[in-house]
Every structure is written in C-alpha cells, then in structure tokens.
Amino acid sequence: MADNGLTEQVIAHDQSVKKEDFAKGAMTWVFPAFGYTNAYQKGTVLPKDLPMYSRYEFYSSRQVYELRSPYHESFWALTIGTAVSKGAAWGWEVSGAVPLRRKRLQSLLQHATCGILVGFVPFISAHLRSFLLTGMAIFEIERANKQAASTITGLHHLNPLRCRLTDNPREPVEYLDRAGDIHRMRWHDVIILADNPDPTEGDVSLVQSSTDRAWRMVTTLEAAHLYLYEKLTGDRPLALEFLQGISERHLTEAVNSNQAESARSGNVMFRGVTAIPIYSDVPINRVTIPIAEVPDGFDYQTIYDNAIVGYAGFTGQDVNDLDPRLAQRMSLGSGAQAIVLDQKAKGKGLAAWKADFANNVHRLLADLNTKFTWSELTVEDETREAQLVKARADARKAMQDNQEITPDQSRNMAADAGDIPREYLDQDLTPTNTVADDEPTESSAEDDSEAPKTEALVEEERGKSLTIAEAILEGFW
Prior knowledge:
about 475 residues, alpha+beta, five-stranded mixed β-sheet, three-stranded antiparallel β-sheet
C-alpha cells in the first residue's frame, strides 16, 4: 500500500484525544461554558483593546476576537492569507541514511490532519493561521499506546479554543473534546509552538501574537472602513436637521412619497439625515447639526499605508508581497531597497516559526539519524547562492595559487561550506565538533553507515532519543 496504511490510521483516530470529535458524526457539539457565546456576536465591531489574557479558559474571549479579526478587516485578512499561503507552498525534505526512517517521517507529515482534511497543506495552513492569530499553535502526536517510545500513528492539528495550558510540563495541555470530556495530554503527545513567549510565563501573558502587535492598526483600519461605508451608503444618521414650520405628518408624507425610510419614534431618517420636525406658525426654517463629519486631520491613505507597513513587519513579510503599489509609492519597491527589505523579512516572523517547527520535528518525530529541512528557494535565492559558491571557489583557487592550501584542503573547505557533497571526500581533513541548530542530536546522518534496520531496532533507537527530553523534564521535579 502506497501510504503504508497511514490513511486509515489517521482517519480512525483510535488513540487520539479527538476520537470523540468524529465518533458520533458532524452534528456532535459541546456548548462551551466559558464565555464564548457572549464574546463575539455577528455584526459587532472589534473592541478597542483585547480582553485580558487568562490561562485557565477554554474558548477564551481573547482568542475568539483574535481568530475573528481577519473577518473584520480585509487588509489584515489579506496579510494573514498571504502568510499562510506562502507557508503552505514551502517545500520540505527528509534526509537520512536509512530509507525506512525517511519514508516513515515523510508519510507522517503527508498524512497529517486538520479535522476531516488529510494532508500536509491543510494541516500546516491551520497550524500557521493559529500561530499568527493567537500566537500559539498546537498539534497532537498520536501514538500506538501510552509509551513515549511507541510508534507514531498520526499528527493532528488541535483547535486552539479547545486547548488549555497547564502549569505541569509533564502534561502541558488539556483538550476539550466535543463530548465535553477533558483530556490531559502528556509531553510526548503534543507539540506547542509559541510566538514571542512572555518572560512572566503566564502571569501577565504567555505569548504575543501578530494579532496582538497589530491590534490597534486592525481596529483603526476597521473603523475607517466602517466610517467610509456608512458615509457612502447613509447607513446611519450623518446629521440632525431641525425643521421649523412643518408638521411631522407633512414631513412623513413627503418622505414616503419618495420611497424613503418611514417615520420611526417621532423622527424621520432619510438618506443618512435625521429630520426632527418642530411645528409652529413661523415660516419654514432649517438648522443642521453635523454628527458624522470627517474628523480633523483624517487621511485614509496615510492610515492605510501605515497599517500595511505595520502588518508586513508584524508577520515577518515583505511589504511588496502585500501591496506593490505602496512599496513603489514609498520608494520601497525598487533597486537595492527592495532586496534589503526582502532579506530582512526572512529574518523575523515566519522565519522564527520555520526554525522552531523543524527543531520540534527533530525533538519528537524524527529518530537520531533522520533530518527534516525546509527547501523553499526562490529564483533570487538560487541566484544569490550560486554567486556565493562562485566567490568561495575563487577564494579557494587564489589560496591554492599562493600555496596557502593544498588541493585536498581546498576540497575539504568546499565540503565544509556545502559547495560539494561530503561523500566526495576521501578523508575529512577538517573535522568539527559543532552541530547546527537544525541537525539531529547525538549523531548525524553521515555517521550512520548501517544497512536498513528492523522495525524493532528503529523503535529502540527512537526510545533512546526520547530519554533526552525525559531527563530535561526530570529537572522540573
């Protein structure tokens, strides 16, 4: 079977905390008792400030507003959608000396789930959306049994509203299923990725999400859009018109004859103006009191420009990806400045998430000799990398011409820099005792010269790697 039976396993959710979510059909639902129903109602606007953080709630009001924010502000929705689409389109690869191990990790990632959706793209899309909006993304590692070294049978995205963090590192997450049962998840059953963890470790806050950083801009731009909409459509009174010398009955008849709003509560609303008749014998007179005029200093273009630049920075994206016209108008989209912005965007936001995701895959999903890496490269990236390889080759050639190094040493330097495969070396003349942060711990793929091993031996070695995390947890107790 091409997928090694994983499709059936992940659909079954036999050992998953989400088992009850699908056991009784799509209509099964638990109504949360923690304020969700009152936290957000259709048609409401976003509050000026987010509700206070609380570590002890399911369906917390703060997270509800964070997750709903893209539905209120269209350019914030564009920013989040662009970031998620980029993340889902990133390539990745699994390397290692043992084909069975490579295939197992690849299959696990390819069969990860998000609800009824199966596949890495829907899984990572939901995961990234949760990370950007709430500052935290959690997914379950489903295992064949309760042992930390048991076989991994599936990966499942968890709804952030149904997750509650504990103060126990051995059981860091509690999950509320649709039947209303709470499941305590052990450290080897869950992976938590957090954005900008707070130094108070939950006393003041736990994380700071992109939404937290952009909140004031999101609410300001939402208000600007709402104001313009109401101004253009007359959806609410824009001014008070006091009319003297005409009765309410005559005014109402005039309005109805023009197919306008009918009288309501003694006032008549017509095309965004509330008319208040004052009956007297004097000639008709009119006094207007504006109540929704453009505020002093209101400049929609400036508000929009600042918000887009802020959105790009808060999510770690290039402003050119969000609005190329803005980049050109502010001299951010041409020449060396655009290259600098693109490079800076790769060093923040999503770049930190990518490193954290890979490190967690190595910590709990991969064995000692299997490595997960992101392989997203643009044409510009490949061009710059080729230029760097050529520059290093020229430098090595100059060193050989000056008799500073031998040809064998030059080849070793090329292998150390990644310009040629290390397998091309007869002997490594420049060994190193350092490892990169994205390399598997304790040993590397180059050290594993063994033939493919039995299933039992693979599980035994995975158990050895997990003892590292167990030892770390022992330090808490």
